[in-house]
Amino acid sequence: MPYRPPLVAHEYFSADPPELPVRAQGEQGLSALVRAEVMASGGDGVTFKASTSAEEVLVVQVGVAGEGVIRVRLGEDVAARTRSARAIEMVRPGRFGGARVEAGEGRVVVDAGAVRAEITLDPWHLRFTDGDGRLLTEQDRGHVDISGRLRTLPFGRSLVEGAAVAYQESLVAQPDEHFGGFGEKFTPLDKRGQRPLMWNFDAFGAESDRSYKNVPFFVSSRGYGLLVDSGMPVEFDLCRATHSCVEIVVPDDLIDYYLIAGPSIPEVLARYDTLTCAPALPPKWAFGSWISSGFFKDSQERVLARARKIRERGIPCDVLHLDCYWQTLGHWSDLRWDAESFPDPEGMLATLREQGFETCLWMNPYVSHLSPDFPDAAAKGYFLKDQDGETYVADSWHGSYPACGIIDLTNPEAVEWFTGLLRGLLRQGVALFKTDFAEGVPSDAVAHNGMSGTELHNVYSLMFNDVVSGVTREVNGHGMVWARSSFLGGQRHSAQWGGDTYTSYPAMGSTIRGGLSHGLSGIPFWSHDAGGFTGTPSDDLYVRWAQFGALSPLVRFHGTTSREPWEFPAVEHLAVEAIRLRYRLMPYIYSAAVEAARTGAPMMRALCVDHPGDPVAWQADLEYLLGRDLLVAPMTSADGTRQVYLPQGEWVDYWTHEVHQGGRYITVTKPLEQIPLFVRHGALIPVTEVRDTVGDGPFTDVAVVAYGGGGSTIIRDVDGDTTITTVRDGDVLRVGVTGPLPITTVEIAPVAGAPATVVVG
Fold first, then answer.
1. Which residues pair with 320 in a beta bridge?
2. Phi first, then psi: what are they for 543, rounded to 5°?
3. What is the pLDDT of residue 22?
4. Which domain of life is it from (predicted)?
5. Active-site residue among 500, 529, 572, 629?
């Protein structure tokens, strides 16, 4: 009987990445650096003429790109640029006044203060140390097995039939080294043993190694980060092929990477921001809850009824989201209201604004070939082309919706047309857009500026969000979007959400990992569809996910079926209580948001952010710190029991006020109305009265809750920072306040050993 393979799920995607060429049998094709000589040397870097094992001559540059940042480039000439630079500049190297270059006999040192590059010329070798000389990492010298074959790809490039197809680097990984980052990855947080591919997919959820948002950047537990400047499908091998080596394959015209010093993860992220961009802080109202129409037919009447019901039922909410069906079915996304279902959008938007709601509209950069706008836009060249120069009509919806044209954002006239459509909606009163999709540029497409689809694919998401953010800022004074796809430097687009995840406890767990991974990639403002997207959650899952959402950087209720709390009548009150907890904690949450925007450190902090030397902190990836003082462990089990790892220190159970010693796992069982939540002992947590909306004005009626006494905190608000300091004097807690926010109430949580009385002033 002939062999028949088993039936397996196959994810078809019209924009899968191209495969790298394969060498012919017996073809070596490796051009690895062997030796080098100095061509030019300046105060902030050195250029080398390098000889390779394939008898090629290449150019290496090692220089200072900022305090604590070393840049390494390898290519055919000093003018080589990454292919994505034709569309967008993602990295902007800086300068450091203290940079030094020391050249000696056969050795060169490039000093960037907190990090140094030490180079041996013959044979070529590069190692990185911190400012005190401690080894961070170094180039792998090439693993050769007993047969004489290389098992790693040393610094150089690969050739197939004499043509360069990729550049590569290999760095030594220590046995106890951990790695995090690479964008929104739903796999375990510690990427050791994984092989992340930098290619934006429509990931169909949160339960595979495919990602909507890739960032070619990682942080190491040894106190450094590494950023690769390329929009191509870069591949990282984190100790998978060889357990002592990180390999990087860059199918571009050069390899251009930055070694970024820490030693802490927040310091690495702060330096990363200086190379890319600072995170954009969302408007204050965006930190309130978002309630969506869901992915089904909607109307003006239903939207207004939804808004009334939210207010009548006392559900705190700041944003209403209208998904696909504000447009006419079959005309997505031509950015026109369905005139039959929404006869008076301006009046509707004005009414919602009077009720305290901002409005978000769904859209994407694909225009259905059935849209009345399609023929004219295609004739004017506003869409990507195929290899024959015709409009590329792509299956961007994977067969579930008519094929589309993809707006060519390298064409200035197409951008002008596109922004004109958006501008009109914003002027009607729309607050912002949900920028969906944008992972669908096929590799064989051709852009107006001559770029191939492969070259454009990843950076297209940046260009898309740049355009939408820019026109939103022009009209509304803020540049917020709600984006599904992103790439290197995407922290300038606040905010991003975790895509079309399934409704299950395992999928919620994967979603947590995705948010933590994205936070380690420089993205502070991230969210997810509370309740899950695909399917209908059970009552208990809906509540548990609502609790997770309420203690995330941002929260939106959205799915293929309704996520409105009253559609879950048996547990509506529990979901609303989760939202009310968020609004009570809003001074704490918003303060953490402002700090994240200023520093680049994530709001939703993997435990390794604050405890990088604790190996368990890299593995405990189903929990996180929200800000510095709240430890959140979403209930990922239907039976209401889970293991929670508490880092070093003392932690107070938010609900029972029991004090737990850290540095260990504890078993936590919580009823459906409680999420496992812990407060750092000694923390001061600012809270406020729960209102219908957060709004955009400064906080009023803020109280501070002391968990143990003796400490300080900063409440950050739109009108400035207020510092609260507490000193314990016997059984009295003395409180000092400096700043614009009047604090008249300080509560003492009933924690064992807490002071008995408070004196303010």
1. 291, 359
2. -65, -45
3. 81
4. Bacteria
5. 500
Q: How far apart are the first and last CA of the chain?
A: 88
Low-confidence ranges of the chain (pLDDT < 70): 1-13
Cβ contact 293:434 at 8 Å: no
C-alpha triplet 561, 183, 623: angle, nearest 5°? 70
| Residue 138 confidence (pLDDT) | 98
Spell out the SS3 assignment of 570-581.
Answer: CCHHHHHHHHHH
Helix (H) or strand (E) holding 379: helix 374-379
The pLDDT score that the predictor gives to residue 296 is: 87
Residue 64 amino acid letter:
V
Q: State phi, psi for 450 to the nearest 5 degrees.
A: 95, -5
Decide: 758 and 712 in contact? Cβ < 8 Å.
Answer: no
**How many Å apart are CA 112 and CA 72, to the nearest integer?**
13
DSSP code of 477? S
* Distance of alpha carbon 326 from alpha carbon 337, whole angstroms: 6
Amino acid occupying residue 562: S
Please choose, from the candidates 211, 191, 184, 215, the residue with its C-alpha nearest in 3D space to the C-alpha of residue 200: 211
List all residues 6 or more positions away from 366 whose beta carbon is below 8 Å from its beta carbon: 332, 333, 394, 396, 397, 404, 405, 406, 407, 437, 440
> Is the CA virtual torsion 500, 506, 511, 514 positive or negative?
negative
The first and second tokens of residue 50, run together, are 């390098």
Q: What is the pLDDT of residue 2?
A: 62
- For position 6, what pLDDT does the model report? 62
- Strands of 711-717's sheet in order across: 711-717, 720-729, 732-738, 757-760
Closest CA relative to residue 186, chosen from 163, 203, 169: 203
- Per-residue pLDDT at 364: 97
Exactly one of 436, 595, 610, 623 is catalytic; name it.
436
* Distance, CA of 462 to CA of 277 (rounded, Å): 12
Question: ∠ CA(350), CA(531), CA(480), 5° rounding?
Answer: 45
The string of DSSP letters for 248-280 reads EEE-SSEEEEEEEE-SSHHHHHHHHHHHS-PPP
Backbone torsion region of residue 223, taken as left when φ is above 0, otherwise alpha when ψ lies between -120 and 50, otherwise beta = left
Beta bridge partners of 180: 219
CA distances, 205 to each of 246, 458, 494, 498, 619 (Å): 28, 19, 21, 8, 22
User: Any catalytic annotation for residue 323?
Assistant: no
455 labelled catalytic: no
CB 134 within 8 Å of CB 69: no
Question: Catalytic annotation on 500?
Answer: yes
239 and 173 in contact (C-beta within 8 Å)?
yes
Residue 420 amino acid letter? G
Name the catalytic one among 252, 256, 439, 455.
Answer: 439
With tokens 């501008």, the residue in question is: 423
Tell me how many helices (H) and strands (E) the chain has.
Answer: 11, 44
Strand partners, 49: 37, 59
SS3 call for 713: strand
With b for 16 or more beta-carbon neighbours within 10 A and e for fewer, the 190-215 pattern comes to bbbebebbbbbbbbbbbbeebbbbbb
CA atoms of 293 and 560, how far apart (whole Å): 9
What are the C-alpha distances in Å from 372 to residues 324, 377, 423, 452, 502? Answer: 17, 9, 19, 28, 34
Q: Report H helices in 157-222.
A: none
CB neighbour burial string for 280-304, b if at least 16 within 10 angstroms, e if fewer: bbbbbbbbbbbbbbbbeebbbeebb
